[in-house]
Design a protein that fits this description.
The chain is α+β, with helices and mostly antiparallel strands. The chain contains eight helices and 15 strands. A five-stranded antiparallel β-sheet has the order 11-12-15-14-13, with helices on both faces. The longest helix has 13 residues.
Length: 324
């Protein structure tokens, strides 16, 4: 049947590379994205330049590494995949040195704030990885079909949709990854109550290049405003973040612990009254991840003061200092 080359929204048909014209009642756009190479840079298509998206990409990289032992390898991107790729190239033990180039001021910028990301950057540098910041390549949404057909797309790429994943062009739907599961259920079960998309849980706990990293709940609530506040949590992703730009005081308070000697950083975010935990991030010491993540999900009022999350339970009375 070939691949779709054109969309005709006014006729509700699509054309394929084999010339077939196919009519539709509802068109689901699930085109994904492509890894972007810097085509303006000489040598972008040279032997030894790889993207990191498919199994065949990895097989080509492994074969190249085995034939170029001792040379320098460079990974572009300091997100989860970029750090995984850098770790994979380090584990191959074929390269003499591995460098990491990232467009942000610190690695894992989508999961960590500046303090946490800077700490992770320092720790992976100590492991021998050369990190360079504020250089970019990235991925590009596959929205060429929509652009050609006059379907509304975002300025940075991708289809513009509403809370039901519908584009302004009637009959066209463009879900994201988590949205696709709900959409598939709704399309294949017309006799059942439609499911609604809930915000995905972006909590993460992993070990990257030997560094324990975790983020849970609404870990950027202090920066972007909370996604929800206890007592008025939205059931579907139709309500924007709770943020009033006219307010002088954020509805969130942060409790932070830094240990530069042990390489530990913790930041926990609470409601203003300290009664509810909203989210947080941890570097170096992540042993409380499961417990804290469950507290966020349950949204129960805390039984201990926020300080106890960092300091632990304190004994009463004043220490005399004899044990120092």
């Amino acid at each position: 049947m070939g691949e779709v080359t054109d969309i005709f929204p006014d006729r509700k048909t699509v054309k394929t590379s084999t010339g077939d014209i196919i009519a539709y009642d509802l068109l689901v756009l699930a085109t994904g994205s492509d890894a972007v190479l810097p085509t303006h840079t000489p040598g972008y298509d040279a032997n030894g330049v790889f993207v990191y998206r498919t199994i065949s990409d990895l097989e080509r990289l492994i074969e190249f590494a085995s034939n170029h032992k001792g040379e320098t390898a460079t990974t572009v991107g300091g997100g989860l995949l970029g750090l995984e790729a850098a770790k994979a190239m380090t584990d191959l033990e074929d390269f003499g040195k591995v460098k990491l180039i990232d467009r942000n001021k610190w690695v894992l910028a989508r999961q960590l704030d500046g303090d946490a990301g800077t700490l992770v950057t320092r720790k992976i540098r100590e492991l021998g990885l050369d990190v360079m910041h504020q250089k970019r390549i990235g991925v590009r949404p596959r929205d060429e079909l929509g652009t050609t057909a006059g379907i509304q797309c975002a300025s940075r790429g991708g289809f513009v949709i509403n809370e039901s994943w519908e584009n302004q062009t009637f009959g066209i739907i463009a879900p994201g990854i988590e949205m696709a599961d709900v959409l598939a259920f709704n399309l294949t079960n017309p006799d059942k109550e439609p499911r609604s998309f809930r915000r995905p849980d972006l909590s993460t706990k992993l070990k990257l290049l030997g560094v324990d990293v975790a983020s849970f709940g609404d870990f950027f609530a202090d920066r972007d405003g909370p996604k929800f506040l206890p007592g008025r949590r939205p059931s579907v992703a139709t309500i924007p973040r709770v943020k009033d730009t006219t307010e002088k005081e954020s509805p969130v308070k942060a409790l932070t612990y830094k240990d530069p000697f042990g390489g530990v950083y913790k930041k926990y975010l609470f409601t203003m009254d300290g009664k509810y935990l909203l989210g947080g991030m941890m570097i170096g010491d992540t042993k409380d991840y499961i417990k804290l993540n469950q507290m966020v999900k349950s949204q129960k009022e805390l039984e201990v003061p926020p300080s106890q999350f960092i300091l632990g339970a304190q004994n009463g009375g004043e220490e005399n200092g004899d044990d120092l």
